[in-house]
């Protein structure tokens, strides 16, 4: 009884990676030799025996082709090369983060210049910058001040970045997103 439960609840995992040798379900396959030469269309069993005679495996490269394309090579080397390729792709990718800079419509010039200088540093690093202008109380009646500030920011940032999201109101704040060129 206990043995049955262990087998019943055991996790069934799918095999990862391409099908190889006896897992190839197609009756005929297009075979590529170990040196990269095309050996033509063969019966799957013949191709497997040919690969075994060379001490290698038959690996399905393109399963969706008609007939499927298989290559004679070492399975361990194939998995190693695939892992190397994945690691290289992961290393080259750049994660872009969104930095936020908050201002008010009555921000003084020194504070403004300091915040724009920081925004330029963020954009130079490759990050996007979200400018937020918060309005409090009666400032909301003077939304033109926020528009003027956003236009000034656009002018100051045009040499290093471009506007991704144009200025728009979101409740009591105005937002704009600038991305690197």
List the helices and strands and how they pair.
Layout: H1 2-8, E1 28-32, E2 38-43, H2 44-53, E3 57-62, E4 69-73, H3 75-92, E5 98-103, H4 109-125, E6 128-134, H5 143-157, E7 161-170, E8 173-180
Parallel strand pairs: 1-4, 5-6
Antiparallel strand pairs: 1-2, 3-4, 6-8, 7-8
Please characterize this protein's 3D structure.
With 181 residues, the chain is α/β, with parallel strands linked by helices. The protein folds into 2 domains: 16-81, Translation initiation factor 3 (IF-3), N-terminal domain (Ubiquitin-like (UB roll)), CATH 3.10.20; 98-180, Translation initiation factor 3 (IF-3), C-terminal domain (Translation Initiation Factor IF3, 2-Layer Sandwich). The chain has 5 helices and 8 strands; from the N terminus they run H-E-E-H-E-E-H-E-H-E-H-E-E. The chain has helices at 2-8, 44-53, 75-92, 109-125, 143-157, and strands at residues 28-32, 38-43, 57-62, 69-73, 98-103, 128-134, 161-170, 173-180. The strands form 2 sheets. The chain has a 4-stranded mixed β-sheet with strand order 2-1-4-3. Strand 3 (57-62) and strand 4 form a beta hairpin. The radius of gyration is 30 Å and the shape is elongated.
